[in-house]
């Protein structure tokens, strides 16, 4: 009876050990996922900043082109053919 109890006790310890290892691995996976999410957020933030700068530049060019077009249009209206 003692050998059987010892075997059951050993198996229980083995299961507890596996459960503890499982929890440790889950914790490590969670940290990795959080790190990846943080890196992804940083990349997205950098990309949004780049796109905002590009948009501002394009809007400035659009405004300049509109101004030039208005000047040319005004010039054409005042010319006599």
Query: In terms of structural class, how would the helical and strand content be classed?
Result: mainly alpha
Rounded to an integer in angstroms, the radius of gyration calculated over CA atoms is 35 Å
Largest sheet: none
Structure annotation, total helices: 1
Mean pLDDT value: 93
Overall form: rod-shaped
Give the fraction of residues assigned to helices.
Answer: over 70%
Report low-confidence residues grouped into runs of 5 or more: none
| Proportion of beta-strand residues | under 5%
User: What is the H/E string?
Assistant: H
Describe the structure.
With 81 residues, the protein is mainly α. The protein is 95% helix and 0% strand. The chain is rod-shaped, with a radius of gyration of 35 Å. It starts with a helix and ends with a helix.
Key phrases:
81 residues, mainly alpha
Structural topology:
Elements: H1 2-78
Brief overview:
The chain is 95% helix and 0% strand. It has 81 residues and is an all-alpha fold.
């Amino acid at each position: 009876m003692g050998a059987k109890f010892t075997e059951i006790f050993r198996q229980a310890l083995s299961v507890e050990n596996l459960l503890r290892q499982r929890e440790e691995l889950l914790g490590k996976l969670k940290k990795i996922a959080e790190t990846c999410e943080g890196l992804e957020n940083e990349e997205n933030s950098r990309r949004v900043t780049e796109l905002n700068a590009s948009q501002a530049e394009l809007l400035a060019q659009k405004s300049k082109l509109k101004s030039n077009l208005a000047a040319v249009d005004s010039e054409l209206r005042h010319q006599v053919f």
